[in-house]
């Protein structure tokens, strides 16, 4: 049996068809072509199997949950069934730039001390490009706790390292933050390359998911992991900031973030 080095994992539930088609096409059009593409069908309306029939690409493998099990369950199922040494994450409404997998794979192979490698991303919406997210360099516990995480759908990960910590912890809308913390506690190292390799879609209605009701998983994860990672006053301030942000009106949160938090890359 041929060895597979890379498994791309994507969980699908009720994504707009035009977004889903763009996301799938961007993976199938990569300059690096030797991978399996696992799409977990979490029993939404799109009927993924029929949706991808037109591609006639034997790299695609559909995993059908039979019923809706949620994002975290789906990602962990994909992790367990993946055949690749490395896992490339992809979301159903993002667009991977053509060299994304090639650049990440070359870096992680040539720098085996890192278990997770991400990239910078272009945030965009229906109104156009809004920001460039991510800062290049190694990500330590302090940088993660201070709000410089890896952008989840930008990463490539060593599958064994993720499985060693039990996969994604069950913190809703904070499964990535919790995974980074688990990996750091287990001695893994993480890095963000300077290349911008993903277009990361954030539409206006996504800000409605940043209210306090939707931030419970994030706040709970921070309260659980920060003491274990040796958090200080600045790191605990980040928890208070998340709570305040969740209490603000959605429109104010969006305006504040666009003006003060996200820096546009004008190069």
Provide structural commentary.
This protein is α/β, with parallel strands linked by helices and 267 residues long. It has 10 helices and 10 strands. Helix 8 (216-225) packs antiparallel against helix 9. The chain is globular.
Strand pairing plus helix content: what structural class? alpha/beta
The general outline is globular
- Fraction in helix: 25-40%
Radius of gyration: 18 Å
**What distance separates the N and C termini?**
46 Å
Mean pLDDT: 89
User: How much beta, percentage-wise?
Assistant: 15-25%
Point out poorly predicted stretches.
Answer: 259-267
What's the helix count?
A: 10
How are the SSEs placed, and which strands pair?
Layout: E1 6-12, H1 17-28, E2 36-41, H2 48-52, E3 60-64, H3 71-81, E4 86-89, E5 95-96, H4 100-110, E6 116-125, E7 128-133, E8 137-139, H5 141-145, E9 156-158, H6 159-164, H7 175-185, E10 190-201, H8 216-225, H9 233-247, H10 250-261
Parallel strand pairs: 1-2, 1-4, 2-3, 6-10
Antiparallel strand pairs: 4-9, 5-10, 6-7, 6-9, 8-10
What are the main properties of this structure?
10 helices, 37% helix, 267 residues
């Amino acid at each position: 049996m041929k060895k597979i080095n890379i498994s791309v994992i994507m969980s699908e539930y009720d994504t707009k068809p035009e977004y889903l088609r763009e996301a799938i096409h961007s993976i199938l059009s990569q300059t690096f072509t030797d991978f399996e593409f696992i799409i977990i069908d979490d029993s939404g309306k799109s009927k993924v199997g029929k949706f991808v029939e037109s591609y006639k690409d034997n790299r695609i493998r559909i995993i059908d949950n039979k019923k809706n099990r949620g994002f975290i369950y789906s990602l962990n199922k994909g992790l367990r069934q993946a055949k690749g040494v490395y896992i490339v994450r992809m979301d159903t409404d993002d667009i991977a730039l053509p060299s994304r997998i090639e650049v990440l794979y070359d870096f992680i192979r040539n720098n085996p001390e890192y278990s997770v490698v991400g990239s910078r991303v272009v945030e965009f919406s229906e109104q156009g490009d809004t920001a460039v997210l991510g800062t290049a360099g190694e990500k330590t516990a302090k940088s993660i706790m201070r709000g410089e995480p890896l952008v989840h759908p930008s990463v490539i990960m060593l599958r064994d390292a993720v499985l060693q910590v039990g996969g994604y912890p069950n913190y809703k809308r904070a499964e990535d933050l919790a995974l980074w913390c688990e990996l750091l506690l287990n001695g893994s190292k993480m890095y963000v390359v300077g290349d911008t390799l993903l277009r990361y879609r954030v539409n206006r209605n996504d800000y409605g998911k940043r209210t306090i009701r939707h931030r419970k998983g994030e706040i709970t994860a921070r309260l659980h992991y920060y003491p274990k990672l040796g958090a200080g006053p600045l790191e605990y301030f980040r928890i208070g900031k998340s709570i305040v942000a969740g209490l603000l009106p959605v429109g104010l949160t969006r305006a504040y973030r666009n003006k003060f938090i996200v820096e546009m890359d004008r190069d």
